[in-house]
Structures are given as C-alpha cells and as structure tokens.
Fold this sequence. Notes:
Layout: H1 2-22, E1 35-36, H2 55-58, E2 63-72, E3 78-89, E4 93-100, E5 117-124, E6 136-144, E7 152-165, E8 171-176, H3 177-181, E9 192-200, E10 205-213, E11 232-243, E12 250-254, E13 271-275
Parallel strand pairs: 1-13
Antiparallel strand pairs: 2-3, 3-4, 4-10, 5-6, 5-11, 6-7, 7-8, 9-10, 11-12, 11-13
Amino acid sequence: xxxxxxxxxxxxxxxxxxxxxxxxxxxxxxxxxxxxxxxxxxxxxxxxxxxxxxxxxxxxxxxxxxxxxxxxxxxxxxxxxxxxxxxxxxxxxxxxxxxxxxxxxxxxxxxxxxxxxxxxxxxxxxxxxxxxxxxxxxxxxxxxxxxxxxxxxxxxxxxxxxxxxxxxxxxxxxxxxxxxxxxxxxxxxxxxxxxxxxxxxxxxxxxxxxxxxxxxxxxxxxxxxxxxxxxxxxxxxxxxxxxxxxxxxxxxxxxxxxxxxxxxxxxxxxxxxxxxxxxxx
Length: 281
C-alpha cells in the first residue's frame, strides 16, 4: 500500500508540478489602457450558427470595437467603411466577429475570378514591441459574386505568420502560413475551428465570424498563440481590412494603416488581454 501511495505521489509530482516548474505559467500584468476580452460563448453556441445571423445577438457580451476604415481604391476614390469588431473567449476559443458596412464586393472581381475582401487580426504575442518570427495572426477572406447573382459564395481563412519573404518582396512581412510552410501546407490553418459569413447586397454589409483555438499543439513553428489553462496574456494587436488584387492590394488598418511598410515596430499597437487565470463561476 505504501509503495502504491508513493508511486501515485511521484507520478502526480512529475505530471502536475514539474511542468509548471520547468515551464511556469505566463501571467502578465494588465496594462491600464488594455482591451480586456470578456469570457463569453456565442449564442447559439458556435457549433451551430445559422448561415444568416444577427451578430449583435450571437456575440452578446463581447468586447466591441468601433472604427471606420478608409481604403484608397484603384480608381482614386476612397471607400469609407464603418465597422464593428467583436471579441470574446472561453477556455478553448477566441471568438472574432466583424461587421463592415458599405464594403460591397471587391471591384477587382470579374466573372469566374472572384477577388476576396479580407480581414486580418495580428498579434505581437511576446508583447515586446518588436515583431519576430513566427508571431501569430488570422486572415478571413470573403469572395462575393458579381452581378447578376450578387450573393456570398465563399469564405476562407488561414493563419498568418511574420516571416522573411525571399521571392517577390525580399523582406520581413506577414504571410499566410500555407506559403511559409510549403510544401508542408497540410498543417496550415489548424488554429481556426469554425467560421461563417454573410453578405447583404442592399447595404453592401459583409458580416463574418470565426472561432480560433487558443492552443493548437503541433503548430508552434507558425502559431505562437498557445495559451495554457491558468494563463493571462497581454499582447499587442492590429486590425486590417483589405481588397485583394494580386500584388496591388488596397488596405487600411486600425488604429492606423501600416500596409506597404511591413515594419516590425509593434510598440504602438494597442494591448489586448486574454485572461484564462480567472474563469467565471
């Protein structure tokens, strides 16, 4: 009996105590000006979200960020897009929602060649003000059909990673993980658990929502957003809205535009806090 008890005690120490000694939990201080993401679950639960949904109801109790994107278009006009971004989390997922009023379809689209509207969220995971490979981010793209259909036809997502691009640009920049991982592309995109989108042709409103895993073992080389239970992370973050067109994308960012500079300076990014150390009752 004593040997059995001793074995259980030793096993418990090895399993529970030693990992926390060797790899202590990350518990960051909450900056005074940080955006703290609340605990929440979408309604109805994200495992079942209808194709057409009211994002204000689905993302009730989320952190709500309002901003206006102003994107310089190819014809010299400026497309003004009042937008709302919703953020929430539970113990497993980061929930991201967005409503972009007056975005309409990408004017670069032609029949049988749909160019997507894209939303990005980037993280300075180390929160040190300097982007270093790999960092982490998410891309959500919505391709909208051109007349006469005028209907949402597809939505796709991918992980984003901060890496050196050796071919076209030859400097550090955000790239989709499948480009960075090629030919190991089957591992790309594993951090997104579910997604949905819709398009209202009468107002040109694009609405999106996706759930990103807070921890995705096996993807650490391109996704360093790997939170463990009991941790609290403060991270810099940046939002971007974009129309894609080969090598001439049109984009604006929040809190300010950065596309075209590809700077690794994230010291000015606002702070975002995800707190798994204090779950609700």
